[in-house]
Design a protein that fits this description.
The protein has 385 residues and is of the alpha/beta class. 37% of the residues lie in helices and 13% in strands. It has helices spanning 5-16, 39-44, 46-55, 76-80, 99-112, 126-138, 167-174, 195-205, 229-242, 257-263, 280-288, 300-307, 355-358, 362-384; strands spanning 30-34, 60-66, 88-92, 116-119, 144-145, 213-216, 247-250, 271-273, 291-297, 312-316, 333-336. It is globular and about 60 Å long. The model is unreliable at 1-18 (pLDDT under 50).
C-alpha cells in the first residue's frame, strides 16, 4: 500500500475537473509524456516530470521526444538518464511528414497502450494542438492532461516587475490537475545523479586537488546567443585577479572546447577544460561537487547549474521574454538589454548584428559575477551555522 495514496486520490479528484474525472492514480499503469527539446528544454521540465512520477508512482512512464537535431543538442535521455523519472523513449523526428515514420510512431504508441497522455510540448497554435489531439486519439489515448490552450499557452507577466513566469512554472500550471508543485523548490530539479556519475565527476576534477572553483560554459549552438570569445576571455581575465586562488572549470559539448580554451587563456589559477569529456549528467555532477558560480549564456548547463542551487551570472540575448527562460531561483545576475528589436526569437541575427547581446559590456558582467558569487557565499555561510 502506498502511504498517502488515498489523500492523493482525493486531492486529484478535487482539483482535476473533467480531465481526470474517475481516474484512480494507483490504477494507472502506463503513462506517455510528450516533451520536445534537448538539454535546456528537458532540464526546465524536471519539476513537471517529478510531479508526474509522484502522481503515478506505479506506472511505466515513456517519453515521446524528438531525436537530436544538432550535434551540440543532447537527447532528453542524456539528461534524464537513470533517474527513474522516465523509463523509456519513443523517438519523434520533428517536422516529419513521412507516412512511414508517422505509422511507426502510431504503432509504438498503440502497442504501449497508455492510460493517460501528459502533454508537455509548447503551444504551436490551436490548429497544431487539434492535430496533436486527433493523432493521439488515433493512437488510442482517451485521457490527456496539459494541452496548453488559453492562458496555459503563454507565461504570465508580473505587472509590477514586467518579469514573465518561468517556463518550468508554466508547465506545472498546465498539469495542475495532477497536483500542486513549486518550481522554486529545488528538490523538484533533482537529477537523481548516480554514484557512477558522481564518481566520474570526482575523477574529472581530480587534477584540481580539491581547490575551490568557478565553472564557465561559454559555448552555444545558437549564433544569436553568442557573446563572443573575446568578451569571455576579457571577463575571465578580470575575474582571475579577483579570485587568484580559484580554479576555472570549462564545461560544454566537444564542439565548445576551442572557444572554452580561448576564453580561459588568461585565467591566472589552475584551469580545466572538460568540454566533451563528460555526459550532460556527469557535467551536472561536476557542478554539484562545489562550483561556487556558473558563467555563461542562456543554455542547458545554465539551467542545470541553477537547478542545483549554484548562483549564475548570465549574458542573455533578449530574443525571448524577460524571465521566461532565466535561471530558476534567487541570487542570479542576468544581463538583459531591452531594445526595439527584442523578442525577435531569431536564432541567427544578421540585420541588427546581435545588438541585444553585444551591447552587454565586460564591466557589466564583471559586476554581476561578483555580486552572484557573494550571494552564494552568504548562503553557504548561513547554511553552515
Amino acid at each position: 500500500m502506498n502511504p498517502g495514496a488515498g489523500t492523493l486520490k482525493t486531492d486529484l479528484q478535487r482539483e482535476a475537473g473533467y480531465e481526470l474525472a474517475g481516474v484512480d492514480p494507483e490504477r494507472v499503469k502506463r503513462v506517455l509524456i510528450y516533451r520536445l527539446g534537448s538539454l535546456g528544454d528537458t532540464v526546465v521540465a524536471l519539476p513537471a516530470l517529478h510531479r508526474v512520477a509522484h502522481t503515478f508512482p506505479n506506472a511505466k512512464r515513456l517519453m515521446l521526444t524528438n531525436l537530436p537535431v544538432h550535434v551540440k543538442a543532447p537527447a532528453s535521455s542524456a539528461v534524464i538518464g537513470e533517474s527513474g523519472l522516465v523509463h523509456g523513449y519513443i523517438g519523434y523526428p520533428v517536422g516529419t511528414r513521412s507516412p512511414a515514420k508517422l505509422f511507426s510512431i502510431w504503432w509504438k504508441i498503440r502497442r504501449f497502450r497508455p492510460d493517460i497522455l501528459i502533454y508537455l510540448a509548447p503551444s504551436r497554435g490551436e490548429q497544431a494542438l487539434e492535430r496533436d489531439r486527433r493523432f493521439f486519439r488515433l493512437c488510442g489515448v482517451s485521457r490527456m492532461v496539459g494541452i496548453p490552450t488559453g492562458d496555459l499557452a503563454r507565461p504570465k507577466q508580473d505587472a509590477a516587475t514586467g518579469i514573465f513566469e518561468h517556463e518550468s512554472a508554466r508547465l506545472l500550471r498546465t498539469i495542475r490537475p495532477l497536483g500542486e508543485a513549486d518550481a522554486l523548490d529545488l528538490r523538484n530539479w533533482d537529477l537523481h545523479l548516480t554514484e557512477a556519475e558522481r564518481r566520474k565527476a570526482k575523477e574529472g576534477l581530480a587534477p584540481l586537488a580539491g581547490r575551490r572553483f568557478i565553472a564557465c560554459g561559454p559555448g552555444t549552438k545558437m549564433q544569436a546567443k553568442d557573446w563572443g570569445g573575446e568578451n569571455w576571455r576579457a571577463l575571465l581575465a578580470r575575474l582571475s585577479t579577483i579570485w587568484p586562488e580559484h580554479a576555472m572549470v570549462m564545461v560544454g559539448a566537444r564542439e565548445d572546447a576551442q572557444v572554452s580554451d580561448y576564453a580561459a587563456t588568461d585565467w591566472a589559477g589552475p584551469k580545466l577544460n572538460l568540454c566533451g569529456a563528460l555526459t550532460p549528467r556527469e557535467t551536472g555532477a561536476v557542478l554539484d561537487e562545489g562550483a561556487e558560480l556558473f558563467l555563461g549564456p542562456d543554455s542547458g548547463p545554465m539551467h542545470m547549474a541553477a537547478g542545483l542551487g549554484i548562483p549564475c551570472a548570465i549574458v542573455y540575448a533578449s530574443r525571448s521574454r524577460k524571465g521566461h527562460w532565466f535561471p530558476i531561483g534567487d541570487g542570479h545576475e542576468v544581463a538583459y538589454h531591452t531594445l526595439p528589436c527584442s523578442l525577435c526569437n531569431l536564432e541567427v541575427c544578421i540585420e541588427n548584428k546581435k545588438q541585444c547581446i553585444t551591447s552587454i559590456s565586460v564591466e557589466e558582467m564583471l559586476e554581476g559575477s561578483v555580486k552572484a558569487w557573494e550571494y552564494g557565499q552568504t548562503r553557504r555561510a548561513e547554511r553552515a551555522v
